[in-house]
């Protein structure tokens, strides 16, 4: 995919997230590797619903701006994850309603915020680790995500939102959508007796993905 095609896809996906209520105002950011040395990132303060191809930020792996506007302040953690995990090619960070609500709950399992009750959760991300609360833009978020970059595809930032990775921007977006739907089901089922997948059922799904 050419640089222009990646930029057009980012604008398209950003608008889709915004129009479906996955993002409001200037919240959230997206990124994708263009090659080994360059990353495309949404600009600082930009609404995902009003992105412009010519204003998207292109950075080198040291964070220097090569094209476009100043990048999101959270581009720091995007770059850290790309440096640490060469298989990570795209990142979606959103403050979508149900996942953000989940991030505000006390007592979440730090190794997996939601115990699996659908096979799609397992097949898409496997598990979702919880990152302790830090203020948005804090370098500690980048450090925490860098340390975990090789151990998962999805990370819940406490009292903040979700960070989801993928093989490309479409894959990261699909992973995010599946997670948000799973969180919605989680809250819908509150007060009901949930039938969680057994350890054997989870292992079977994991093995089929290898």
SSE topology:
Blueprint: H1 3-19, E1 29-33, E2 38-41, E3 57-60, E4 65-67, H2 75-84, E5 90-94, H3 97-103, H4 119-124, E6 128-131, H5 139-148, E7 154-157, E8 161-166, H6 169-188, H7 199-208
Parallel strand pairs: 6-7
Antiparallel strand pairs: 1-2, 1-5, 2-3, 3-4, 5-8, 7-8
Task: Characterise the protein shown here.
The chain is of the alpha+beta class. 38% of the residues lie in helices and 17% in strands. It has a single domain, classed as Class II aldolase/adducin N-terminal domain (L-fuculose-1-phosphate Aldolase, 3-Layer(aba) Sandwich), CATH 3.40.225.10. The protein has helices at residues 3-19, 75-84, 97-103, 119-124, 139-148, 169-188, 199-208, and strands spanning 29-33, 38-41, 57-60, 65-67, 90-94, 128-131, 154-157, 161-166. It has an eight-stranded mixed β-sheet with strand order 4-3-2-1-5-8-7-6, sandwiched between helices. 39% of the residues are buried. It catalyses: 3-dehydro-4-O-phospho-D-erythronate + H(+) = dihydroxyacetone phosphate + CO2; 3-dehydro-4-O-phospho-L-erythronate + H(+) = dihydroxyacetone phosphate + CO2. Catalyzes the decarboxylation of 3-oxo-tetronate 4-phosphate to dihydroxyacetone phosphate (DHAP) and CO(2).
């Amino acid at each position: 995919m050419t640089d222009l095609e990646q930029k057009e896809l980012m604008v398209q996906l950003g608008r889709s997230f915004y129009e479906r209520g996955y993002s409001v105002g200037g919240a959230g950011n997206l990124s994708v590797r263009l090659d080994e040395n360059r990353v495309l990132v949404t600009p600082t303060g930009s609404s995902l619903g009003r992105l412009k191809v010519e204003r998207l930020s292109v950075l080198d792996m040291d964070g220097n701006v090569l094209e476009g506007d100043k990048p999101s302040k959270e581009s720091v953690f995007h770059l850290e994850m790309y440096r640490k995990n060469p298989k990570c090619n795209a990142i979606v960070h959103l403050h979508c309603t149900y996942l953000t609500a989940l991030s505000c709950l006390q007592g979440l399992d730090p190794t997996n915020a939601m115990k699996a009750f659908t096979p799609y959760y397992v097949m898409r991300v496997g598990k979702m680790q919880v990152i302790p609360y830090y203020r948005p833009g804090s370098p500690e978020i980048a450090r925490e995500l860098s340390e975990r970059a090789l151990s998962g595809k999805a990370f819940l930032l406490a009292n903040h939102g979700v960070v989801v990775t993928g093989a490309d921007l479409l894959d990261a977006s699909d992973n995010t959508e599946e997670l948000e739907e799973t969180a919605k089901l989680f809250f819908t089922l509150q007060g009901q007796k949930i039938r969680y997948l057994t350890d054997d059922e989870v292992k079977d799904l994991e093995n089929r993905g290898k």
